[in-house]
# Entry
Amino acid sequence: MVASRPREEELLITVMSPDCVGAVLLKDPAVFIKVIPVCLECGRRVNANASNAARQRLDRRVAFALELIYASRPTLGVNRKEGMKMTRVRVEGFTISLDGYGVGPNQDIKNPLGVGGTDLHQWLVPTRTFQRTLFGADGGTTGIDDDFAARGFKNVGAWILGRNMFGPIRGSWSDMNWKGWWGDNPPYHVPTFILTHHARPPIQMEGGTIFYFVTGGIHEALDRARDAANGMDVRIGGGPDTIQQYLRTGLIDELHFAISPVLLGGGERLFEGIDVRALGYECVQFVASEKATHVVLRRQGQQ
# Structure
């Protein structure tokens, strides 16, 4: 790993990986904006379909290179108490039942969260944050639940959603008039990337939301979301299968989920077949309100 001689406006790091020789471009000021792994031979990005293990090795080497540069350049203009700010991948406010389900069974147009799924969010709907974000209304509850609702929208520059979070349509897009569950002004207000197997043109919504439909899988979606977030965080909205895919590849830095005192009896479990401890996650916060228990998991080594 060798850092080339910095030019005035940029810094180039070369990184070796089993799949490609990569380069990372940092534009000054050196508050981290984005990492661009590029093949030095062909000029293309590192293969987005590289194995998960290879991608994680590359990510670790990039992080190590950044630490070396940060330590060796005292004039980076970065607040040393805060450190170098990097885009994080977060799950916020995802709610599960006492029996572990993140959505109920039989999702359809009448049951967007599956049968009984809306009961999960009794902690969220009354909060001041939800009322303001969804309905533009004043008022709403404050306290623990609202604090966790509010943190979910802070410093978020892009979202990633599974297709079920966008709508009930399966297969090809038979109804191109469908523009999501939320009406003309969805609560995202930033670029939002939908995982799907079927291409569709982007949709510009009111309030700053633009839906992009990604057919290349979770890595392509995350690369595009990071670019769009422009240094802010990327929020993974769900559903359970989408979160599981990002958890299994170690791409989620922090996960806040709420446990609601309801039983669904079926649907999709959030942690089905996943050993989060073996993946390097630990519990860093555990707080109970009257309507939910809030848990924050963080990948070890993250702050």
Observations:
- Helices lie at 52-72, 128-135, 144-151, 218-229, 240-248.
- Confidence is low (pLDDT under 50) at residues 1-49, 63-84.
- Residues 2-72 form one domain.
- The two ends are 25 Å apart (CA to CA).
